[in-house]
Fold this sequence. Notes:
The complex is a heterodimer of chains A (131) and B (221). Chain A has 131 residues and is of the alpha/beta class. Chain A is 48% helix and 19% strand. Chain A is built from 5 helices and 5 strands, in the order βαβαβαβαβα. Chain B is of the alpha+beta class.
Amino acid sequence: MKVLLVDDEEEFVNTLAERLQLRGFQVLTSTDGEAALRVVNEDGPQVVLLDVMMPGLGGLEVLQQIKSAHPNIQVILLTGRGSTREGIEGMRQGAFDFLMKPIKIEELMEKMKAAFELFIKGSTEPEVKPL
Amino acid sequence: MTDQEIAFMGKMTAGMTHEIKNVLATIKESSGLMQDFLKLCQDGPFPYGEKFAQILSGIQGQVARGVEISTRLNRFAHSMDEPVITADLNEIIDQVVFLNQRQARLKQIELRGIPSGEDVRMATDSFRLQLVLAAGIHYLLDRSSPKDLIILRPRKTEQGAAVDIQITAAEETAETIEAPRPELRPELAEIQKILDQMQAQIRPGNAGGREGLILVLNKSG
């Protein structure tokens, strides 16, 4: 599975990326929204782990642009707020799911696996075109 | 404080708690990565492996504690976002009890929220409501003895809602009996202005002869 991890906290990104690599994932990283969109377009990850609150292009804006250009890419939001409001709003906008930071690695793995399965399902189903 | 000043305090606090959570998230991942490497070399010669695992577990426990505190503080900060919201009194009491546990613990008093069996929601100023509830808790903490229990329990009333705050013996949760007394002590008179703003009243009430308070919230407030 190729996963893109996006968060403006560089040390968090590097550490979590290494943990995911140890578990066999191919991990791409990005520390801002604009760069994340470039990676999405150029490297085609199947799953994106996306921080909601980032300087510049925020997580929800990045989510909208990813889902608009690549509806099949599954996005899991990472939110640091005390409430679930942003996560729920993100799911309304097409996110696969959300997790509150700090994350539990086992929970993240489960959600990534489920997101990847949905990606595969979306890739194999024929597109239904309107008559 | 004006609503604008409260909102400013809330915004600053919310921003800082968010940053603290980012720090904790990085510490958690760093200690998690160390655990990962520790597992990879558990079959090799590493005499302090068990000690390392124990220390890392301690770090993760403290991270979890820090996350809980910063999450609660973040929620408290966001209660300053809007002057009036539809508040769930069961949730507000849970929050106030958490935020005041330290003061209670220092006096060796147990502080406990008892949720109402029903949904108790009403439009209110949640920040000022927390302030008033905390004032009630501190008032009773000063009148409690070690090993006492202070309970907070919301309930619906015809006018809106009320919160009983009582000193009681452990496991005793008798119904509140309103006992008219001449007036409240000066400590609580200090929050009278806030109560007036909320169109709320706080008055003495007791349970089983122990001291207590009743916070009465009116729908219009």
